[in-house]
Design goal:
With 288 residues, this protein is an alpha+beta fold. 28% of the residues lie in helices and 20% in strands. The chain has 2 domains: 4-135, MutM-like, N-terminal (N-terminal domain of MutM-like DNA repair proteins, Alpha-Beta Barrel); 148-272, Orthogonal Bundle (Helicase, Ruva Protein, domain 3), CATH 1.10.8.50. The protein contains 8 helices and 10 strands. Helix 1 packs parallel to helix 6, helix 1 (4-18) runs antiparallel to helix 7 and helix 5 packs across helix 6 (201-222). It catalyses: Hydrolysis of DNA containing ring-opened 7-methylguanine residues, releasing 2,6-diamino-4-hydroxy-5-(N-methyl)formamidopyrimidine.
Length: 288
């Protein structure tokens, strides 16, 4: 799933490619992807791209006073095409193509989504606050306003909620998902299931520092990369996420996993849980 660093880099890459170009057409290949009807997609035709930005994990393409907002969800991506086919795409349940944006010089973007679970969402709005997911977003962790005290207040307000879930909750902190929450907790040496309001001052300091370094460094590494390079960059630099059975780079212990119905998390027992493996949530009560 693309998270804050990848969407930030996508916005930067697309800004250089799209700004000043006119949108000729937006072809919808997966009708379920479009979540709005007024203004229609056709309202973008013939308008110039004013800029490309990000709100949490939402990509925002500003076109002629309107906003084409894309949430890539679990398996979505944006692929640049130097030349798009002359014929519009045909809707097909077997295709990964959700939409195609055609520009006035014949280049364009393919918005794709792999797999059968279709959650990618597109919106055409006059104000980004009209997108429900954006209206609910918490603070962006890369802004100067996201101080250590702001994080401490968030954790206290979350009560006994597990810190992993708090980090992933977009209405609490914008942009962090499953992968980077694993990385943050590993860097801060915290159990993913520790109660949010039980963190002491030193642990809050460590988590805030991890957000600044792990997420900040990922953004800095990703800047300047083309969309085609971002997935590989993300995977290569993960310490524990997606590395079950491999060696923890901090201590040499094995990276372990807890599986859920539709996701999983990875952690190091030595670094994060005092050497105690966490039980699978589906089988028994979690070990704190």
């Amino acid at each position: 799933m693309p998270e804050l660093p990848e969407v930030e880099a996508l916005a930067l890459d697309l800004s250089g490619r799209l700004e000043g170009r006119a949108v000729t057409a937006v072809h919808l290949a997966a009708f379920s992807a479009l979540k709005t009807f007024d203004p229609p997609l056709s309202a973008l035709d013939g308008s110039f791209v004013d800029g490309v930005g990000r709100h949490g994990k939402f990509l925002d393409i500003s076109v002629g006073g309107l906003h084409l907002v894309i949430h890539l969800a679990r398996a979505g991506w944006v692929r640049w095409r130097d030349e798009v086919p002359a014929l519009p795409p045909r809707p097909s349940s077997k295709s990964t193509l959700a939409a195609r944006i055609v520009l006035d010089d014949g280049s364009g973007l393919d918005v794709t989504e792999a797999g059968t679970r279709k959650s990618l969402a597109m919106y055409v709005v006059r104000d980004v606050a009209e997108v429900p997911g954006i209206a609910r977003l918490g603070p962006d962790p890369l802004t100067p306003d996201f101080t250590r005290d702001v994080l401490a207040d968030i954790l206290q307000a979350a009560g006994r909620a597990q810190v992993k879930g708090v980090l992933r909750d977009q209405s609490t902190i914008a942009g962090i998902g499953n992968a980077y929450s694993d990385e943050l907790l590993h860097a801060a040496r915290l159990s993913p299931f520790k109660a949010a309001n039980s963190l002491d001052d030193e642990q809050v300091d460590a988590l805030h520092a991890a957000i600044d370094t792990v997420v900040g460094d990922a953004v800095r590494r990703s800047r300047g990369l083309a969309a085609s390079e971002l997935k590989g960059e993300k995977k290569t630099n993960m310490a524990v996420h997606g590395r079950t059975g491999e060696t923890c780079p901090m201590c040499g212990d094995v990276v372990r996993e807890v599986s859920f119905a539709d996701s999983s998390l990875q952690y190091c027992a030595t670094c994060q849980t005092g050497g105690k493996p966490l039980a699978d949530r589906r089988m028994s009560k979690l070990l704190k």
